[in-house]
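Re: folding output
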Amino acid sequence: MPVIPEYRLDGKVAFLAGEGDGITPALAGALAEAGAKVFILGPHQPVVEGGMLEVARAGGQALGLFGDPADPASVERSLEALLPLWGRVDILINNSRTPFARPFEEVSPGEWDEVIRRNVGAAYLLCSRIGREMLRQGGGKIVNIISGLAERGLWNSAAFCASQGAVLQLTRALALEWARRNVQVNAVGVGWLTTEDIPDTEAQKDLLVRYIPLKRKGRPEDVAPLVVYLASDACEFTTGQPIYLDGGLMSHP
């Protein structure tokens, strides 16, 4: 991914919390290619190791830890590993997002609480703990990667939609609260994503793809450049905004 000088992240430290959606390694590689050191926290081995491999391919520096981004102990262990070596956190990319699909009347109280814990809880914990480091340093960039379902409904997805809407509102409120303390907080709303390399003509046989105005699902390389921009010093006057990468779905009636 070519990186123009204004978007360089040289000397920056990025904390990337990811799930198994396939885009975390691409985000890690893009951040490293832009010049950032990258710490990766993820609950699964392929997430962390895949991200570290992409950083290595970009010639960057990476650290990683297996752990749940919604678990306070995991976040603390991450900072205990990161701060003594790199001394600061300039960028938080929260890609911790767990889908859940079930008819609302069948969702148990325990399932509802777990969806909120994993999605909203992770966003709260990461923004709170790492945000305090940014406030201490005098600034930083936070990017919460959410679903377009933060603003659109979908059947059999009420719990997940509610969790994404909560993270969007957290993004907006934090942006206002920390604006005068030089911390910009934005969100990237992703649509339907795929990591499969399928020709567009084949992909368009999928009924879901036919509904997307651009007639294809999103790919990791669609998300990474925007995340790098939002994490860069070039992005100084944008905060509290959700930016949707969804092939036009948010404009679809």
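--- second protein (sequence, then structure) ---
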Amino acid sequence: MISDTAILKQNPLTTVVDTYKRYVTLKTHKIQALPIVILMPHSSCNCRCIMCDIWQGNSRDQLAEADVRGLLDSLRALRTQWVVMSGGEALMNPNLFRLCDLLRAEGMRVTILSTGLLLKRYAHEVVHHSDEVIVSLDGSEDVHNAIRRIPNAYHKLREGVKAVKALDSHFRISARCVIQRANFADWPHIIDAAHEIDLDQISFLPADVSTEAFNRPELWADDKTSEVKPAAEELPQLKMVIEALIQTYAADFTSGYIAESPAKIRRIYDYYAALHGLAEFPVVRCNAPWVSAVVEADGTVRPCFFHEAAGNIKETALPDLLNSPAAIDFRRHLDMDADPTCRKCVCSLNLRPTKRLLPPAP
């Protein structure tokens, strides 16, 4: 999950120019600056998670060095500062670290999203060719393994983090956790596990059950969504768990170890209540299509994970895709209060023009 909470110093002139270009982008709907780009280096995954269908895909697409080299001029022109290697499992791309080097040589920060299963094997490369890792943590050991449907997934994750920290104790490894029916009761143990594994932070979001993202060309049927979302009769328990968390882990909220505020954590209950028709969906404040883009393993470009594709970088340059008449029209008329995809979004990004991003690690 992308975080928009980090602020660090940058070159003052660069800061002024970027702020201006991002402000113009929001006003005109024409992309002048694109601070964040999400790349999917590999289309497949090494987990079989119950809330995601990426692992079921037959495709083994992956971004090649030529693809990223072809993007460099576009990313320079768009003043991209942060590249997130998503997936699938990014570490399954054998040329991943060469791709990281190309981007970091341009002054871009590189974050790798990972299941953690390959983290120990590539610990040295991760430390020397990227700036941070975000792993997926779904529960205490038994719960995590059950959700991932991979034997010893928790052990491999823990050993991977340990290997990276042994090389560089200051290397940042945080976690994201999808709260769902299988783990919401385990929530306190998830936070305890994050501390035990020696993660630097943990973030929480609900499960997406209503879009075609994550390799779902057809929307899930009710029986499948019922496996992932808490049942209506479980919602009171979910609310109790959340309120207990806010009290018990107050220090972790205050310190920022838990990335979200208590109010944002309560939105997870609101989201699931809305799926059952018991509440309105939480209001979404997001500008992801104006500040970021997703490039999939086959070159497909989307304004975010959940909206329709805008084209392919193998056919059209990224700035031309983002600023085509259709793309500009999409942004100009996107009403997040009415759009059915946006109203049910589980992973919004709201990056103000004045918000600074983390620079590459020294």
